[in-house]
Structure formats: C-alpha cells, structure tokens
Design goal:
Elements (H helix, E strand, L loop, with lengths): L1 H11 L4 H18 L1 H15 L8 H41 L1 H28 L10 E8 L3 H21 L3 E9 L5 E9 L3 H5 L4 E8 L8 E13 L14 E6 L15 E6 L4 E5 L5 H32 L10 E6 L5 E4 L5 E2 L2 H5 L4 H16 L1
Parallel strand pairs: 4-9
Antiparallel strand pairs: 1-3, 1-5, 2-3, 4-5, 6-7, 7-8, 9-10, 10-11
Length: 384
C-alpha cells in the first residue's frame, strides 16, 4: 500500500535540473548582451561625475548624467538580483536532491517561483536585444486617429486609446494625455498622448500602422457586422529637440480654441487649448490638458519639434533605402493587425503572423506577446 502511494508521487515530482541550467545560460547571455563589466566601469565614471560640486551649474549636462547613471545602475542592480535569486535556487535544489524526494517536494514551490521570476525578467532583457534604433529608450509620443467606419471607427479609436493606457499601466509606465478630439456621436476622432517609461518608444514603434476591427456593430439598429479602422502613430519624445531641428516662427500657424467636454474623462474643459500647424510640412499638433495657454503652447512645441526631428530621420532613412533598391512590405495594404470579435474571436498580426484567440485580454492591454513577435519578425526580416 505504501509503495503504491509513493510511485505516483515520484512520477509527478518536478525536476528543475534542466530549467536551472537553461536559466543560467540565459542569465549569462543577458550579462553579455548588457555588457555588465563595461556597465560597472561606466557607473563608476558617472558616480565620479555626480560627485563634482559644479555639475549642476550645467543643468542639461547634469540631467543627462543623472539619467544615464540611473539606467546603468538599474541594469546592474537587476542583474545582481537575478544572479542572487538563481544562485539561491540552484543551492536549494542541490541540497534538496541530496536529502531525498521529500526535501525536493518541499523545495519545489520555492524553486519554481524563483524560475518564474527569472524567466519573466530575462524575457524583458532579451526583448531589448531586438531594438534597432538610437531613440528606443525614450518616451513615446503617440497619436490615434479614427479612419474608415464612421461612428464604429471613432468608438474603435477610443477602445485603442484605452488598450494602450492599460498596456502602459501593466508595464508601470506613465501616460500623459495631451489632446483628445471627441467623436460626433461616440468615441473619439483623435488623441495625442505621451507614454513615459524606459524603452516606451522602442516597444510602441511596433504598433505603428492601421488597426482593423471586425464586430457586430453596437451602433447599427440591425446589429450587422461592421469593419472599422483606426491608426496608431509613435514618435520618440525628445524633450529638447531644438538641437536637431530649427523651427522658424514664421512657418507656424497657431490657433487657440476651447476644448470640448464631450471627451468625458479624457479632457479638461479649458479656453486655452492650442493647435499649431507647421505650414511647410503640414504637421499639426495640439495640446489642451495643461493648466494654461502658455503651458499648452510649450508642450505643443515640444511635440512638434520631436515630430519634425523624426521626419528628418525618416527622410534620411528613405534616401539610404533608395540607394539599396525598393523594399517590399509584407502586409495587406497599410493594415498591420486585425481584431475580430465576430463571427469568431481572433487577433492576428499580419506582419509576424502571431495570433491569439484571447481578444478580451489584448483589448485590456495584454500586448507584450504581439509586440515581441513583431520585433523578432523585424529582426529576421532585416537580416534576410
């Protein structure tokens, strides 16, 4: 009888040996990718800079040094914490193995939890290796615009805004909502917001493009199936882009308007909203959520400078690509992703091919797998 009860327990006993070896390999690869030795040397240099009494006489340089130090120190502390957690798990599992199956069973929960934390942290570090741009660590200026589909498209645009707000919340990022134009009957026509967090732009660059929603329309009296579109744009936010672009005041048309209260929770009603049009390029930016007209104008100018700097970078990139020949985009038109709610449930990224049936989770901000799949596709596509 005793033997009969022990065999199933032995068969179900977890064996973490291979997982621990794999975790160790991934951690060493992460150290190599982040160049931990160079990082440690750089932290020492930055600490010496921060100790200089005259550092803050140049606020711009001080801010840059402080930001770089915080990021480098954060990476070192992260790797040190993962190293300690993995070493503790390795020792615990080794000792449990020497003491027999009962000790292993008691230690399994703790080791399994440690491996789960390690896996999630290493996933995030490995994702960084897929970034390709010089501004990927920056905050992101995002714009959502309703497209074809009437009221459904405007409702879809508001759903997308909520989706990205929830995604940012999941990652511990801050969202600053700068402008929302409400729809005629429901939803929004457009929204401008800044996502603040390390690598926000590198991640959200994967979301640029047209997003297609298919569902039974809640705005159709006959409840027919409706296809609607909305677009997402992302630009790296450079707080002081004046060094990259020269904006002539004569090239600007500045309009003041009253923001509408129809945006509900999204906007503050104010008489000081600002819309700036850059006449040579046609770029339009708006800001309505700051406390004063002066603050709204300053923020709108920041956003305009960042968008002009990104436009210049895109033009330079287009010139380089023209020299190497035309590139074929693997997509259906400009559409990057479909969200189907009826007659079946499916989200599919048309670039990477990644798909999931858990549409509700995606619309609630669970975008990390879709973003990671696209970044891997992009790396492979560029390498090819």
């Amino acid at each position: 009888m005793g033997k009969g009860t022990e065999e199933p327990r032995g068969a179900a006993r977890p064996d973490f040996d291979d997982e621990l070896v794999r975790a160790r390999e991934r951690l060493e690869a992460a150290k190599a990718y982040l160049r931990v030795d160079d990082l440690s040397a750089r932290v020492a240099e930055l600490e010496a800079d921060l100790a200089q009494p005259d550092l803050w006489s140049d606020p711009e340089r001080a801010r840059k040094v402080n930001t770089e130090y915080g990021r480098a120190k954060s990476d070192i502390d992260l790797l040190a914490g993962l190293e300690q957690r993995l070493s503790d798990a390795e020792v615990l599992w080794s000792l449990a193995g020497e003491e027999g199956e009962e000790a292993e069973a008691e230690s399994a929960g703790e080791v399994g939890e440690a491996l789960g934390v390690l896996s999630r942290a290493l996933d995030d570090i490995e994702l960084r290796s897929l970034f390709a741009g010089e501004h990927d660590e920056r905050d992101a200026i995002c714009e959502i615009h309703a497209g074809a589909g009437g009221t459904d498209a405007q409702d879809w645009a508001e759903m997308m805004l909520r989706m990205y707000e929830r995604w940012a919340e999941r990652r511990g990022f801050e969202v600053e909502l700068d402008e929302v134009s409400p729809g005629q009957e429901a939803g929004i026509l457009s929204a401008t917001f800044i996502v603040k967090g390390r690598h926000a732009y590198g991640l959200l660059a994967a979301e640029r493009g047209v997003h297609r929603l298919v569902r039974m329309s809640p705005f159709d009296a006959q409840h027919r199936r409706q296809t609607s579109f909305a677009s997402m744009e992302a630009t790296p936010f450079i707080e002081d882009a004046s060094g990259e672009v020269d904006i002539d005041e004569k090239d600007l048309r500045i309009d003041t308007y009253r923001s509408s209260g129809a945006g509900g929770q999204h906007v503050n009603v104010t008489d000081s909203a600002i819309r700036i049009t850059h006449l040579p390029t046609g770029i339009v930016v708006s800001c309505q959520n700051e406390r004063s007209q002066h603050q709204n104008k300053a923020k709108a100018m920041q956003i305009l400078a960042a968008k002009l700097a990104e436009r210049q970078r895109a033009e330079r990139q287009a010139e380089l690509e023209a020299l190497t020949g035309p590139q074929t985009e693997v997509a259906w038109g400009n559409q990057i992703r479909s969200y189907v709610l009826a007659p079946y449930q499916l989200v599919k990224d048309l670039r990477s091919g990644y798909e999931t049936g858990n549409v509700e989770a995606v619309l609630d901000g669970d975008l990390d797998d879709l973003i990671a799949a696209y970044l891997r596709y992009r790396r492979e596509h560029e390498a090819g």
